[in-house]
Amino acid sequence: MERPIGVIDSGIGGLTVLYELKRQLPKEKFVYLGDTLRCPYGSKEPMEVKQYTWEMVEHLLTFDIKLLVVACNTATAIVLEDLIQHLNIPVIGVVEPGARAAIKSTVSQHIGIIGTKNTISSQAYEYALKQINPHIKTLGIACPRFVPMIESGDITGEEAYRVVYESLKSIEHSPNIDTLILGCTHYPIIQPVIEDVLGDKVTVLSSALETGAEVSASLTFYNMHTTTDTLLSNDPLILTTGSLQVLQRLKDEIFHFTNSQVKQVTLV
């Protein structure tokens, strides 16, 4: 089935998931939509997040997508079940794959979760973790300064280190934490900074790897894998509601989607 896979995010962060999907599924065609104009979603009211997410989905449906990946933790926490109920294609979020990765990693059974205000307050990760292991201890930390910083393109400088250090100070008071979930798909873009700040006693994980595995399993289950080799050289089509400048730089320098088309779209 040669229809594309749709990937949505509140901005550029979902490129971290898209990169892993393309790595694991090189024959598949992808259409990515990042709502950078209205990013971040993490501080918005849940009804706004639901409205904006559905607007992105409706736009991607015009591409006849065969599967939808919600590569935004906030949207996954708030809208995933609604999407699953109302769409007639498979829908995959990023929370449960991230929780599974953390369960595999932790030895101490103490897991930290960083994310947007909405993701942390939803306790979606805590629920997913405890569904697997009720004895897991968690610490959730909202990091509202991360997404605006990343969207601005400031990902390696002194300011980035200062913001990360100030945001994660509370982990110093929780020495049993040995695994940290990056509960926002923007955060892997600054993962090297986070790892430098926390040191080697904490394993830092994103949900991208496990999400890729789940998408692959769904394609197999529904017999949706692309079977031809004609798409091997196809880079994803990348759509954004906002400025092209930062997106263009990141997709080339970090994700190496050098042949991808980047287009600006308007959602109504």
UniProtKB/TrEMBL annotation:
The keyword Membrane does not apply. PROSITE patterns: ASP_GLU_RACEMASE_1, ASP_GLU_RACEMASE_2. It is an enzyme of class 5 (isomerase). It comes from the Bacteria. Substrate binds at residues 9-10, 41-42, 73-74, 185-186. Keywords: Cell shape, Cell wall biogenesis/degradation, Isomerase, Peptidoglycan synthesis. PANTHER family: GLUTAMATE RACEMASE (PTHR21198). Provides the (R)-glutamate required for cell wall biosynthesis. Belongs to the aspartate/glutamate racemases family. This is Glutamate racemase. It comes from Alkalibacillus silvisoli.
